[in-house]
Amino acid sequence: MQWQPTTSHQQRLARADLLHQIRDFFYTRQVLEVDTPLLSRGTVTDVHLAAFATRFNHDSSGQPQDLYLQTSPEFAMKRLLCAGSGPIYQICKAFRHEGAGRWHNPEFTMLEWYRTGFDHVQLMHEVDALLQHTLDTEPGEYISYQQAMIRWAGLDPLACHKPALLEALTTHHIDIDEPDSLTVDGLLQLVFSLVVEPQIGQQVPCFVHGFPASQAALARLNSQDPRTADRFEVYYRGAELANGFYELSAPREQRQRFIQDNALRLTAGYPEMPIDEHFLAALEAGLPDCAGVALGIDRLLMLKTGASCITEVLNFGIDRA
Amino acid sequence: MANYSTNEFKAGLKIMLDGEPCNIMENEYVKPGKGQAFNRVRIRKLISGKVLEKTFRSGESVEGADVMDTELAYLYTDGEFYHFMNNETFEQIAADEKAVGDNVKWLVENDVCTITLWNGSPITVTPPNFVELEITETDPGLKGDTAGTGGKPATLSTGAVVRVPLFVQTGEVIKVDTRSGEYASRAQK
Predict the structure, then answer these.
(1) What is the homologous superfamily of the domain A9-140+204-320 according to CATH?
(2) Which residue ranges does the record assign to the Elongation factor P C-terminal domain (chain B) (predicted)?
(3) What's the ipTM?
């Protein structure tokens, strides 16, 4: 049995240091550290996010309940915001029922924070400041999703249809069987991951904002250009490091998106997921204007220590869990 | 042959692609936080030797290839086939010209080669990293050139041509690195 950790002691020290730096950063900025449960009755409906499920046999209702391990602490933290918590952050485990790889482990450590009164632009600048604080980076570069796709893939993501996307696969030598069966968003993600990502954020962190409205997730649509969402992602040296939103606060629109997601899930052959009614009830009570972001701490640590595989920064990756 | 899901992909796994057995050289899991998961794979086709990149949807399955490596000693060629023997079982296998390819110039009797079999038939023959061959022809060089600067071409008994230092002469046996096709040293007597 390979029982030993895959980290060096140096790596364990680096993690402790990094966590200290992060807590220091938020303490100085008077953002409150909070703690929310990993298990939840409701879960995400995203087509491409799968939660681990478990069975709770001791529910006070007398009936066994399905509980889900969180894919991020987003719903619970927004409930705190609705309850008047003010700016908050959390460092916690998140779980995604998907494969492991160089940058991926199904169980990982996430830093998530919310800033009341911020929009996504202000929050991008705060993420930039955190990266400068922890990784000693130079100030980041900012580019819209549309500009990035036009520049690196020769494709306008807001004005293209499937044939142009399929052609882009050929142009960029992406060989996949039956590309026609991929959705427009699937094709966009493929081109972005394989063509754009390797080009951006090599010197300084790259903030990509204004994702297509169809990939809004929990971000509000842009008030000037509703073809785009106020969602951003941060890329640095090959890692997709963080994902942030100017948070959608309209309960009816949020419920509509969950229902839409579940319909897409059915079309794709995945099961519908139970909507988090606690979260929607909190939105009804009112989410303060805020922006939030989730950042992968293991990836941040990989970048900080120059690790080439996530198992170098995890004591026990999924294969040794 | 079993099917493999993308979860099982790793370097060294043999799969079928376009009807040809292939070796996975590298596998990268690509999964945007909010997007579809793919596996980006670098593959070597084992018959044509072509290297290519292919993208799979994560969770997809592909057919495995029944490919195995075996260590066999080279015996002789009858002009059409190259005959190899398992030194333990004395079982013999014949590989055709296509399987031997350019490596024909490194085949030395009794040397143990790696023969890759697909469904039991040889598809590639890999010679040992170093072989010893006699020089059949090279220009007489200046004696005393031990630095090995410059060098000169030498034809070996199999027809292979390698650059050798000036002090090495016709009739000598030299050691050659078959991976680079470069002279390594004079053979140990």
Answers:
(1) Bira Bifunctional Protein; Domain 2 (3.30.930.10)
(2) 131-186
(3) 0.90
